[in-house]
Amino acid sequence: MAAEWDAEGRAAARPLLTDYYQATMALGYWRAGRALDPAEFELFFRRCPFGGSFALAAGLRDCMRFLRTFRLLDADVQFLASMLPPDTDPAFFKHLRALDCSGVTVRALPEGSLAFPGVPLLQVSGPLLLVQLLETPLLCLVSYASLVATNAARLRLIAGPDKRLLELGLRRAQGPDGGLTASTYSYLGGFDSSSNVLAGQLRGVPMAGTLAHSFITSFSGNEVPPDPMLAPAAGKGPRVDLVARVKLWLERVCAHLGLGLQEPHLGEQAAFVAYALAFPRAFQGLLDTYSVRRSGLPNFLAVALALGELGYRAVGVRLDSGDLLQQAQEIRRVFRTTAAQFQVPWLEAVPIAVSNNIDEKELARLAQEGSEVNVIGIGTSVVTCPQQPSLGCVYKLVSVGGQPRMKLTEDPEKQTLPGSKAAFRLLGSDGSLLMDLLQLAEEPPPQAGQELRVWPRGAQEPCTVRPAQVEPLLRLWLRLGELCEPLPSLSESRAFAQQSLSRLSPAHRRLQSPALYQVALSEKLRALVDSLSAGGLL
Length: 538
What we know:
Residues 16-143 form the Nicotinate phosphoribosyltransferase N-terminal domain. With 538 residues, the chain is an alpha/beta fold.
């Protein structure tokens, strides 16, 4: 395989971003003469996160980058040699140095797919030693990406389709890699943009941002702009002294609002003017540095109206403290009265953005009918997933040499499903989701209109179902190290995720006490499970 040594591929995960026991098992396979045995692993989760009934599959693009750049460097092999027994056969390290993924095949759910417990997110097949080594990096790439995407999808469902959601959790994320992953996959899950510049550069995530209180508090009001002159937006006409125009507008605004001219903070006014001179087409105000009603709002209005005279339109205001819902309603009221007073109708619709440790409960409050909030910035609650910090994905061996393998354990929940499998989604005549079906890959695929006898997981008895439509779930993405089709762009996967979520029934979409979505086994797969559980010989 011709490896693609792009920087982002190496950054996604390196071969040694793994657990030590992967290396010790690799040596064990080598010594047993089993390094090249054909094997298949499945990556899946056991329970839906956050007490919900669904997850979104994510991280596939990163996995493909990782697999196509996978190669142990000399320094990697030398380090492993220093950690393994000193009498290890040098041929083992030569084998490691030659490893790439030219013998690896991957089937997976497309990014943005609805995913349910036990249904593989990835199926990885290839030489046993190699696909064992891939376990930890693939889990690392898929688990958090899927968790964040699902968390973002929940927040989008709460917010509804019309509120703009801004992810701004980079400074709260678990390290730089976590920050980039969170910004990428919160966008896939339904957020509109991110404050993360690197996510914009590397992943094409739309960027957005306002300004910080430090910018405002850095001004005292004594500063003189090097060039206070601003040309009209249309480019025609004389340049205008913006500082002077703002002072005139502030007198009129304060009279309208019943404020003394001395009440608005001069440093805040100077900060707003400086920002407006730098971004006349994208002026926005952070209103709560000193006092929203007595300073931030009148200063913003004075600058916005001065810009408006020149044909520019302010793009928004932001609140970062206090009762966000109540303040947004009061600000909208002031916008409307001011728009009427000065006959500037565009002012009524200036977007109001809010932030400040917004969680699901506060988001529901901000999204209620009658809320005047347009943009909601969420950081900690999306990137750290505080309700559940891990999806708990696992990567389990299901076959070696074409023979099924099964983990029994003392905990029935941790039993695995043996054999190479296919997965299908069964739908009703109205397109509603009935259940997902797992069966052995050797079985003929189910057909629309066919009556199927299946075993829902956890049930003691089978049931019958007659799907009106059948959709195969797992697509072939990588065959012997080569991509089988172009990967969708991040924006395409985002659109697919929203389409996928729209197919959920209200009972399954419900975030509190949702109905559980069924995953069932074919009769043949169930019989194999029973045989191996009873200790039957293959």
